[in-house]
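quick one before i forget lol
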Amino acid sequence: MVVLYFGYYALPQFGVVLPGFFVGVLMLGVIYAAYCSEVYRGALLSVPAGMHDACAALGLSTVVTWCRVLIPLAVRRSVPALVNYVLELYKQSAYLFAIGVPVLLARAQVAGDQSFRYLEPYTLTGVLYLTLNLPLVYLLHRYEARHDQFAV
């Protein structure tokens, strides 16, 4: 939240004026780029050192070793964490409401303001977030169940 406020209120002090939507995309993108880079780094470090040795013993070039062996193994290990970050990013998009970006939560606020009944719009918003997240969670569980049996 602090990063969003910084991008929205502090960047104009330095002459960088962007609409709220672009500030939100930029700031959340920077935050999640850092998270994802750590996931990739951890996934690459989790590949056993024996894989490097096996590729060298087979005489594979460095490019083939990385493209055909190491990166596919690392991607398989990083997918669950990356999907979790996608889910978290989707949920944190509601924070954009704080800097004036009309997201789903803002629509619920407007509907509540018009009818003075906030329970129904906020409940519907929560159900929509849940409905949009559940299929991705289901696919992630299926992916993990399928690939756990082939884990190295």
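fyi The two ends are 39 Å apart (CA to CA).
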